[in-house]
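User: I'm new to structure prediction. If I give you an amino acid sequence, what do you actually give back? Let's try with this one:
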Amino acid sequence: MMRSMYSAISGLRSHQTKMDVIGNNIANVNTVGYKKQTVTFQEVFSQVIRGASAPQDGKGGTNPQQIGLGVDVGAINTIHTQGATQRTDNPEDLMINGEGFFVVTDDTNFERRYYTRAGNFTLDRDGNLVTVDGYKVLGYVIDEDGNITNTVAPIRINKSETIAPSPTTKIEIRGNLDSRAEVGDKHTADTIIKDSLGNSYVVTFEFEKTRDKEWTMRVSKITDQATGNYMEIPANTDPDGTANTDPDGTANTDPDGTNNQIPSVTLGFNEEGKLINIDGNDLTDNSKLEFEVKLTGLDGIKFDKDKDGTTISSPIPPAGSFENILIFDSSNEETYNQLTQYAAEMDAKPYAMDGNSSGTIERYTVDAKGVVYGVFSNGERKALAQLVLAKFDNPMGLQKMGSNLFINSRNSGEPQYGVADSSGFGSIISGSLEMSNVDLAYEFTEMITTQRGFQANSRIITVADEMLQELVNMKR
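Assistant: Good question. You get back a string of structure tokens that encode the predicted 3D arrangement of the chain. For your 476 residues, that looks like this:
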């Protein structure tokens, strides 16, 4: 009887522990990134009343006789299954869709590291990405060239960061030149280019039909967008006024075939309206000459007329410098396949493919690979850092530290670091959070069985007590 009472006491204690775990799971049903725990029991030592015997002398063997001495908690495991997705539309909220943990630290040397699935981050006054308790989120540093390095540091979004202006280096000509146009008909279109300081200039291109299936393209005017001052460029001259053809009338090219003039080039089309020839370079020949057409010499221009057309006595040069702007590159077939000559509307137009003014950071975004991009006022995006993720051979071996944090233990294995959406790591979902993986239906079912188990063990103590009472009453 005394053994049964003590066994029942162990049952009460074990079921109380299980109820504590269930209560904690239910309490954290809405905790971001929480991982539920489960309890398993195991029997404790059994007292041997009589040992087993082997068959002998014509008698059969006998089994051992044992009395168990109760129950104990075998394991309290943390279940690292994926939680449901909660959409928040807050760009600072991040979720790992798959395996991995965010890496955070409260150490100036970043050596003391913690791991979490809770991505409800915020920015502190210095622009550091931090948890709600101020732990800094770690990421890989990206250098000035946009390359990801192996250096790990806290992710910081500097609200005062600016992006430098960039000059235009490429213009694409797209659209159609109407095959029904008469010889001598002209079509003009313009685009905006940038200099090294981010100043804007309108470059006007003129297309003139010179014969059947042949057009001449050139730059006829360059205008300072800020002031309206402009310079008209006569045919066959560079921006500085020098002739852009040799004395025999051929195009002035460098020995390597580069067209070293402001574009005043001949465009030849075939019967299907495809561009097949640029300044004598056959684009359909498999052994065609590798050549380029560039808009060069812009550093030599001077605006000699104001916006009203009045001549400026002292011509004004641009404020910044220009790059040589690539327009046609025969090594890239797409650069000339976009210009056609069909019997359709005249809509050929130059498009500046790059170049921008300076800008200040306005916000940031995080892509599926965990790259943090700063979005600037000029529309540019710049990579600032990339989130570090960690995974473990045995995530159940991680030790909870509170505040949704884990640390590695001797049984979790060493952290394996990497980036999202590669090498087995999950992808990053911005504007969402991972909910807890607590299943209320399961927890309530476990609560019922735990309550009944506790109740049954208490009945053992009650019945054993009544049996002892009967034994005491035998002396009366």
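You can read the tokens as a compact description of the fold. Here is one thing that stands out. The chain has three domains: 2-50+64-80+439-473, 85-159+360-434, 171-352.
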